[in-house]
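Annex B. Sample input.
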Amino acid sequence: MTETTDSPSNHATADLIDAHGSEIDSCHTQFRQFGRHRSFCGPVRTVRCHEDNGLVKEILNSAGHGAVLVVDGGGSVRSALLGDLIAAAAVDNGWSGVVIHGAVRDSATLETLDLGVKALGTNPRKSDKDGAGRVDVPVTFGGVTFNPGQWLYSDEDGIVVSATQL
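Annex B, continued. Sample output.
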């Protein structure tokens, strides 16, 4: 397992659930893995958008400081909210990972990048780039509300979220 921010290999999601039980939330959405890092963790930042990745691009082009961007794309797979260029910017800017409740593109290239990426699926179609949406607001999917500042832990078994760093 490739290590990333805060040694996520020491934070297996199953072990976190066993240790913390109802104190942490487990996302039941079945995501696919795309980035090179299969395990990643960090403080949560959020974007809510629909078929428009302008805000995703803007945020991932800023300093990430090991954070994980959680993008609520409404579950739409009609167009991709992340591709290879934006993901490469995320790597360059120190992001730990990106979780997209929507689609990505350039999946073969995403596999080569030092980034954790989870999404519902793929679509080669580009999204709009108008910047429509909201940043750092609570977003909910998979039975979990993701709030900015919470901690997200992700591995092959899924995603768990804690109010504080574990």
